[in-house]
Design goal:
single chain, alpha+beta, Jelly Rolls, Arc Repressor Mutant, subunit A, 6-stranded antiparallel sheet, 4-stranded antiparallel sheet
Length: about 270
């Protein structure tokens, strides 16, 4: 989740990342592949998703939902360098918590958060959790792995205590909270993901994903993705007067020759003649 740059310090303890930026501004665009809970100690964290812009200041916390494309800016503010902690919640970790949870305590009829970037309200649980980790910005103090695992668990329960909508968000691998396949790939068709990764992102095994996909399309997932990319490319070239050299990358093709060949096969002529 951290960009490559010359003047920053990032260290990781059991999926908890401590970030310290010496430069005045760092910018990156990321596909957020896991859930993250982020707390800002100093500086400013700006997140942009489409037309939505969220600013997170010192003492504030934000949740980033997985499987979304987010533009991130980490920068100084009021003379203070950017310092933040990024808690990563992986699927297996969340599955373990789910299986240890009393099912009677889990609400079954609750909607999900629609937004991908969720700025959290101030809460004593969140504040105390992250303040307790402040000493670990000193790299000479190495926390025990068991302590960091407990912090991750504390992070999950802090979210669940803030809003019940985090139940289907964090535990969306369960049957009742499967992610809609077409909705997901319609939003993420341009990214370089394997079919197995897409299956995981939608809360399914590969076999279940293929079975569910057959219910909604006669095409294989691979052919559906190619057709989607070509359809979007056609619209951009034909109706938006975009350059072929730009469009093929935007829709997810890596190679211009492959794109041109697939385009001609689908529409009967080269994209340059559209």
């Amino acid at each position: 989740m951290e960009p490559e740059c010359s003047k920053y310090l990032v260290f990781n303890y059991s999926d908890i990342f401590f970030s310290y930026y010496f430069d005045s501004k760092q910018h990156c665009t990321e596909m957020v592949r896991e859930h993250f809970l982020v707390y800002i100690y100093s500086g400013e964290f700006i997140l942009e998703e489409g037309k939505n812009r969220t600013i997170v200041n010192a003492g504030e916390c934000v949740f980033l939902r997985r499987d979304n494309h987010v533009n991130m800016i980490k920068q100084h503010k009021e003379g203070q360098a950017f310092q933040g902690i990024f808690m990563q919640f992986k699927r297996n970790f969340l599955r373990n918590i789910y299986h240890k949870t009393n099912r009677k305590e889990i609400p079954q009829k609750v909607g999900k958060h629609e937004q991908s970037v969720i700025k959290l309200p101030q809460s004593p649980e969140i504040t105390s959790l992250f303040q307790s980790m402040l000493p670990y910005f000193d790299t000479s103090i190495i926390p025990a792995e068991e302590i960091m695992q407990l912090k991750l668990v504390e992070g999950v329960y802090s979210l669940l205590n803030i809003d019940e909508k985090f139940y289907p968000c964090l535990f969306d691998f369960t049957e009742q909270w499967k992610i809609d396949i077409l909705d997901f790939i319609d939003k993420n068709y341009m990214y370089n993901m394997t079919i197995e990764e897409i299956a995981n992102f939608t809360g399914r095994s590969l076999a279940t994903f293929k079975r569910d996909f057959r219910k909604i399309s006669d095409l294989s997932p691979e052919k559906w993705l190619i057709n989607k990319r070509l359809t979007v490319a056609y619209d951009k070239i034909k109706n938006e007067n975009r350059n072929v050299s730009d469009v093929y990358l935007e829709v997810g093709f890596k190679n211009l020759s492959h794109f041109s060949s697939a385009f001609k096969k689908r529409f009967g002529y080269a994209p340059t003649k559209t």
